[in-house]
C-alpha cells in the first residue's frame, strides 16, 4: 500500500528521508521488531516493559523501509522517519487505513464497565444472530468470526489486531460486531481509528488500579469515559453512582436503562426462581419497551445484563419473541456457569475476581436461601494486595464457608497470597479452611457438600490454565469437577 494513503488521516512530520512520499510502497505494518520483513513500516511503541524505539536499528536491519516514532531514533539516512505525537494513536490510524477502514462496513458496538461486559456481549450476539444479523464478537474469552473462534489473550486486542479482525469479519459476511472495551484498551488507544456506532456503560467500581494499570480511581473512570467521546449513540446504566463522571465530555446521544424512575427502559417486579437445579430471574420491563423477561441465570446482575442487550437490540428492530427466546438459551463459559454434579446441591463456576464482583454474586445467591453458601477462591499474584483483603472479607461476611486456595500465583508464593486473603477473612466471622492446591480444594468442596448447598468456584471462570512462575499449566475446573464426579464420593 502507498505510504501516503496510510498517513492520510494522521497528524505527522516527515523528519528524515525523501521529501516526496507519494510513491513509496509499504508492504506491511509491524509493531514487533522481531516480525519485520523487507519493505515494512515499523511503529515504535513505548511500552510498559520495553520500548520499540530501542529496536529501531533491528527493524531497519530486517528491512524496515519506514519508521513511525514519537521520540528521536538514530538510523541510516535512507530510512524514512515519520514523527507522530503518540505512536499508539498512529498505529490505530495506520491499521485502519491499511485494512481499508473495515469498521465503516460494520455496525460496531462497544461495551465498557467493571463487570457484565462478557455476558452482555454474548447475549447481544445471540439475539442479533437469531434475528438474522451475522455478528462477530471480540472479548475476554474469545474472538468469534463466523464459525471460527480464537482464544483471547487481552480483553481488547491491540489496534492492528482489531482492524485485522474487523476486515476478516467483513469477509466472513458479518454485518455487526460486539466487543468488550477495557479501560486499558481505551487508555492505550487500541480502539482509536474509528467511531463506534454504539457505546455501552454497565457499571463501575474500583478495579485495575496499580503500578502496571491505572494510577488511581480517577484515571480508571476517565479512561472508561473515553468510549463516549468515540461513539455516536451511548447507552448507560442509570443506576450507577459514577454515571455523572462517565458522562463528562461525552459527544454521543444518551439513552438509559435500569431500575430508576427516570430510566428510558425500566425494570420492576423482579422475582427469583429455582427449577430443576437452575437458578433464574423474572422481571417486567417498561418504558420505551415493554415485555416480561425470564432468564435461567441468577440474580439482579442478570437483569442488568439482559437489559443492556435488549437496549441495543431494539435499535435493530428485533422482535420481542426473538429477544426472549435468545435470552432463554444464552450460556456463557465461566459466568455463573452451572455444572451438573448432583440434584441435591448446586455447583457453579464464575469469573468473579474482585471484591465488587464477588459481593454481587454472593449477595445474589444468598437471596435463593441455600442451606449453605460455600465460596472457593484465590487471588492472582503480582496484583494489588488490597484485592486479597477485600475479597477475603466479602466472602467471610456472605458465605457460610470460605475455602481459600490458589488462583494464578504468577511469581509469588501461593501461601503468601493465601495468608493475605485470610487476613481479610478474619475481619468477619465466617468459617474458613485453606487448601493451597486448587484441585484438592475443589475436591474438598464437593465431597463435603450438604443437601441444599450452593458451591461457587470463583476467580478462574473461563480460564483453562494456572500461571505459575511465568509458565501456564493446563487446569480446567470443569475437568477437575468431572474427576470428582467420576469418583462419586459425595451425596447424589
Cα distance spanning the termini = 64 Å
Helix content: 25-40%
CATH superfamily of the largest domain: Mur-like, catalytic domain
Q: Under CATH, the topology of the largest domain is which?
A: UDP-N-acetylmuramoyl-L-alanine:D-glutamate ligase
Q: What can you tell me about this protein's structure?
A:
It is a single chain. The protein has helices spanning 3-6, 56-61, 87-98, 117-130, 159-171, 183-187, 217-225, 243-247, 300-313, 320-329, 355-366, 385-398, 414-425, 438-447, 477-487, and strands at 13-16, 28-30, 40-43, 66-69, 80-83, 107-112, 135-138, 142-145, 148-151, 176-180, 196-201, 231-237, 253-258, 265-275, 278-287, 291-295, 337-342, 345-350, 373-377, 401-404, 431-434, 454-458, 465-468, 471-474. By secondary structure, it is an alpha/beta fold. It folds into three domains: 3-98, 3-Layer(aba) Sandwich (Udp-n-acetylmuramoylalanyl-d-glutamate--2,6- Diaminopimelate Ligase, Chain: A, domain 1); 102-329, UDP-N-acetylmuramoyl-L-alanine:D-glutamate ligase (3-Layer(aba) Sandwich); 337-487, Mur ligase, C-terminal domain (Protein-Tyrosine Phosphatase, Chain A, Alpha-Beta Complex). The strands form four sheets. An eleven-stranded mixed beta sheet has the order 9-8-7-10-6-11-12-13-14-15-16, with helices on both faces. It has a six-stranded mixed beta sheet with strand order 17-18-22-19-20-21, with helices on both faces. α4 crosses α9 and α11 (355-366) packs parallel to α12 (385-398). The longest helix has 14 residues, at 117-130. The mean pLDDT is 94.
Amino acid at each position: 500500500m502507498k505510504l501516503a494513503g496510510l498517513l492520510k488521516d494522521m497528524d505527522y512530520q516527515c523528519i528524515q528521508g525523501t521529501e516526496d512520499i507519494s510513491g513509496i510502497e509499504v508492504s506491511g505494518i509491524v509493531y514487533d521488531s522481531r516480525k519485520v520483513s523487507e519493505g515494512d513500516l515499523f511503529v515504535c511503541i513505548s511500552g510498559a516493559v520495553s520500548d520499540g524505539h530501542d529496536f529501531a536499528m533491528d527493524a531497519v536491519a530486517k528491512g524496515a523501509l519506514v519508521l513511525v516514532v514519537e521520540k528521536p531514533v538514530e538510523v541510516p539516512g535512507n530510512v524514512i522517519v515519520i514523527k507522530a505525537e503518540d505512536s499508539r494513536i498512529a498505529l490505530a490510524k495506520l491499521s485502519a487505513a491499511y485494512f481499508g477502514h473495515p469498521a465503516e462496513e460494520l455496525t460496531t458496538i462497544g461495551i465498557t464497565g467493571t463487570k457484565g461486559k462478557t455476558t452482555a456481549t454474548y447475549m447481544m450476539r445471540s439475539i442479533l444472530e437469531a434475528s438474522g444479523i451475522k455478528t462477530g464478537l471480540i472479548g475476554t474469552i474469545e474472538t468469534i468470526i463466523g464459525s471460527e473462534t480464537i482464544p483471547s489473550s487481552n480483553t481488547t486486542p491491540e489496534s492492528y489486531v482489531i482492524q485485522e479482525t474487523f476486515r476478516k469479519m467483513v469477509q466472513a459476511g458479518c454485518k455487526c460486531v460486539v466487543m468488550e472495551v477495557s479501560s486499558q484498551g481505551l487508555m492505550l488507544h487500541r480502539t482509536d481509528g474509528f467511531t463506534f456506532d454504539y457505546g455501552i456503560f454497565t457499571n463501575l467500581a474500583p478495579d485495575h488500579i496499580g503500578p502496571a494499570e491505572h494510577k488511581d480511581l480517577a484515571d480508571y473512570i476517565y479512561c472508561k469515559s473515553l468510549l463516549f467521546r468515540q461513539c455516536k449513540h451511548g447507552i448507560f446504566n442509570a443506576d450507577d453512582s459514577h454515571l455523572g463522571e462517565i458522562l463528562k465530555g461525552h459527544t454521543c446521544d444518551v439513552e438509559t436503562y435500569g431500575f430508576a424512575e427516570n430510566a428510558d427502559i425500566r425494570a420492576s417486579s423482579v422475582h427469583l426462581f429455582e427449577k430443576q437445579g437452575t437458578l433464574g430471574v423474572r422481571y417486567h420491563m417498561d418504558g420505551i419497551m415493554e415485555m416480561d423477561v425470564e432468564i435461567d441465570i441468577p440474580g439482579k446482575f442478570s437483569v442488568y445484563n439482559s437489559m443492556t442487550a435488549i437496549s441495543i437490540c431494539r435499535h435493530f428492530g428485533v422482535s420481542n419473541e426473538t429477544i426472549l427466546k435468545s435470552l432463554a438459551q444464552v450460556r456463557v463459559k465461566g459466568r455463573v456457569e452451572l455444572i451438573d454434579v448432583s440434584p441435591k446441591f448446586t455447583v457453579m463456576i464464575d469469573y468473579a475476581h474482585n471484591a465488587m464482583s464477588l459481593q454481587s454474586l454472593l449477595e445474589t445467591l444468598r437471596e435463593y436461601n441455600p442451606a449453605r453458601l460455600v465460596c472457593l477462591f484465590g487471588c492472582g499474584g503480582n496484583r494489588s494486595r488490597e484485592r486479597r483483603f477485600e475479597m477475603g472479607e466479602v466472602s467471610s461476611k456472605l458465605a457460610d464457608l470460605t475455602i481459600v486456595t490458589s488462583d494464578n500465583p504468577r511469581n509469588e508464593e501461593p501461601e503468601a497470597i493465601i495468608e493475605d486473603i485470610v487476613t481479610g477473612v478474619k475481619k468477619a466471622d465466617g468459617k474458613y479452611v485453606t487448601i493451597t492446591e486448587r484441585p484438592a480444594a475443589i475436591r474438598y468442596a464437593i465431597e463435603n457438600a450438604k443437601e441444599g448447598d450452593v458451591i461457587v468456584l470463583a476467580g478462574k471462570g473461563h480460564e483453562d490454565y494456572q500461571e505459575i512462575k511465568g509458565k501456564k499449566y493446563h487446569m480446567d475446573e470443569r475437568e477437575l469437577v468431572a474427576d470428582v464426579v467420576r469418583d462419586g464420593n459425595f451425596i447424589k
